[in-house]
Design brief:
homotrimer; 201 residues; mainly alpha; 8 helices
Amino acid sequence: MDFIYCIDVIGTFVFAISGVLAAIDKKLDVVGSIVIGFVTALGGGTLRDVLIGKTPVGWMGDTNYLLIVLAALPVCYYFKKYVMKARKSLFIFDTIGIGLFTIFGVEKALSIGLSTPICVMMGIVSAVFGGVIRDIILNEIPLIFRKEIYASACFVGAVVYVTLGMFDLSQQVSMLISIGLVILIRYFSVKKQWELPFKPK
Amino acid sequence: MDFIYCIDVIGTFVFAISGVLAAIDKKLDVVGSIVIGFVTALGGGTLRDVLIGKTPVGWMGDTNYLLIVLAALPVCYYFKKYVMKARKSLFIFDTIGIGLFTIFGVEKALSIGLSTPICVMMGIVSAVFGGVIRDIILNEIPLIFRKEIYASACFVGAVVYVTLGMFDLSQQVSMLISIGLVILIRYFSVKKQWELPFKPK
Amino acid sequence: MDFIYCIDVIGTFVFAISGVLAAIDKKLDVVGSIVIGFVTALGGGTLRDVLIGKTPVGWMGDTNYLLIVLAALPVCYYFKKYVMKARKSLFIFDTIGIGLFTIFGVEKALSIGLSTPICVMMGIVSAVFGGVIRDIILNEIPLIFRKEIYASACFVGAVVYVTLGMFDLSQQVSMLISIGLVILIRYFSVKKQWELPFKPK
């Protein structure tokens, strides 16, 4: 599955960079930066694999994932000025990352025969729990639980993906549509400052 | 095992409500409320299943658990005023919840043949770690580690349950006695402000 | 493997003491102290076992681990004055602990046939994540991510251990050399206030 693998590698690198940047912000050292980069990039997928019982977890079978995370370190350390300046535009990478990870997570849960609602949930977990675990370690209440449309974008993309799976489309087309949808929703929700309408009465 | 299933459903709903209320208190949005409700209700059992190797974890095989947690959301959102007013009496539901979850957790560990002390421990983990993970995500030192008799009540109930298992009692009777004991200890410890006697010298 | 078992028991006890002391510092009660002692001592190995899929996790098959952690409690509670006075020298026990746990963790990952880089990583996880999980529960950003040479010492020891494994040495000799190296690096890094040279540009 070269197409899926490619998706996963890009997403991992993008998330690792966002993790290392968060670690630098918090004045962590190089060890802390690697761990936070790793957790941000691979924490969501790791949690999914542990919950569904796919162990040893995914990245253990392919050392490339470890290398990809390590590669994010010099990029952030040596080009920090440029990366920081470009920070706002980095948001687009994070957005692409959650799109990729959501659909990849759904796909992995489907592959072991879990029910549709659980597969949708595992897609969301794959995409957002890397960031959640990062925030927990960095001692902050996860941002995505407070006000942004983030997990909700993943939810819509995941539901669309499993729905398209019932029709006679190629997997690649279904993936591209669903990933694009997550990216669009997330992108416009930030640009237009959309908020979820539900509030406690 | 209809009796056990029934116990589990009630406990899950009660815990989910207490989680959603904690999330609302912390001004989390609807996504955060669902996650905290889920973690509070199913986090302890999930940790137990992961540790003992029963994966995919329990709630993945039965979508009802997901629905039960989701049902707690509108209850808290639309009847928040009443629920908040009734907050102190909600404590009784939490108390019933830990009683149910302790014994159910012991039972699950016994069913895969773990040793008695580990089964007692897994009962306690099932009952209290949902709340512990909730507190970790909400960025607080878990209350139950600070001063209340909470895990201790679960400990007594779990020990009594495995002890009763050596006698010629029906499982239902053993369960009711042990669950009742957890509830009574917890209830009176709060009402009478009992504290554990052990202090560092 | 009596030699390995012996190593593991000593390390577990030393870590449990350091965990209970941290819990007392934070004014946790006896339940909190046991949990933090347990997590500090067995959390790293537990995370490793869950990630590599060795479940039920290690300590479930041998109740001695539970007893060792429980034994740390009266030691800290009844000899607290002496233990606190000797606090600085306790650092040496923590240092021995990470040396032992690193190599033991590498060994366990090797035994299920994971690739060398992943085994090195699992050694580090075994040694440092007990402390990391303790810090997360106690609501602090893990110290080892901020400025000390800690995980780096484990990294060097783990790499040396897998390298020695390619030569014709007995396992005991390889272990002693590697464990000694972790201890020496950690010891001198604290005494001489070594810091990692890598900083963001």
